[in-house]
Design a protein that fits this description.
4 domains; Rossmann fold; alpha/beta; 5-stranded parallel β-sheet; 21 helices; 479 residues; globular; Helicase, Ruva Protein, domain 3
Amino acid sequence: MLLQEQAVSRHRQSAELIIAEDDEASRHLLELLARQRGYSVESTVAGEEAMKMVGIDTRVVVLDLEMPGWDGFRCLEYLRDRHPAVSAIVLTASDQAASAVKALKLGALDYVTKPFDPEDLFRALRTAFEMSRVREENRELRDSIGDSSVRPGVVADSKKMRVILERVRKVARLESSVLLTGESGVGKGLVARLLHSMSPRASGPFITVSCPALPRELLESELFGHEKGAFTGALRKRIGKIEAAAGGTLFLDEIGDLPIELQPKLLNVLQDRQFQRVGGEETIRADFRLVSATNIDFAERIASGLFREDLFFRLNVVPIEIPPLRARKEEIEGLAKSILERIAAQRAEKVLRVSKGAMNSLRMHGWPGNVRELENVLERASVFCEGGEIDEEDLEDLGILGKSGRVESGSAGPLGLAGYPLAVIEARAVLETLEMCGGNKAKAARLLGITERSIYNHLRRLESEGTAKEENFQADGKS
């Protein structure tokens, strides 16, 4: 149960200091002293309950080693695996030296023996808070920057991609904003990294922000940062992605989904090259090169009042459109080889081959999900194939039908849909689009040109009717 709740707890508001101590007098004393020193604090008698309290704002946990249920050692293991940036201090009896040593080996920063001097404990706490801050900043920096020294590999076996890469090479040396467009899964993020790696800013950070991934309130803080106390739950100052991108590249993925309320603020940054953190008064210089990506129709979004035209012009200084995979099928063999090499490296296994028949099937498929779908298909096929080779049968189990061509959704040519009931075709379109969008119903609705409520209605109808229509659609005969 705790593990199921962990994803939720990571994003809820939480105290910066958690105390787990089953002795009531000691617990209340620690909590009182912590509050007097300005800490936000929660306390509990049980280790498992303490781990549920750990959230995004938690910096330090004080643990009694002997508690009912989860003892201090199990809590330390949990923190090490799930919250490595959180520092831990353990409370132990004076005759438990061996236990203290074990706790330090499990990742505890320090230990304090009972009965403890409060000043000794709070000196240790100050050190723990500083250590946690450093760990968190280092982790955020690693996650944001990635490996800037590695130039991402792009397969360019088609004339269209070679033209695009030549354009990337030319624009990389400039400071102009670049807007990458194309269907979901075509590799816009990879091209953005390539552009950064070829630019004079290559030694700087490459910072990615996914615009639809966070609600408006959190996205504003993610982009611009915030000062301590700027809003409820802002327990410490946070550096935003714009500030973290100084000297490097800021990549705004799915920029078309940027909330309308934040668009003027981003426009001001692009015009004035300066900004302020949320709740702050200090003006900070913005030193980044902007690359954006989208799969939406900006003309439609601007006409509907959901996107500012003046911001679009700022983003679209150099537009680069990346064609779908079905328009560059000569690259499928090279892409498949590259993907399988990466899978083998991750698993420390031998690189799999693709049989001639299977490769023909891959070339004939329509790839509505583009390169991302190809990656998904090869990863799943690689799990169950035998003899070190992916064959046609491995792909047929995943809906890649090759020469039989019963259903080649997303292909450039005729789809063979004549004679099928419209309800069946609609169901197939909804299911495949949902799979392509990773289950994101809002995104699937946008691609299909319907409302999100319609997606839910389709799913409810399919659930009530069972899978008969889907099976009929795959069959050789027509309904």
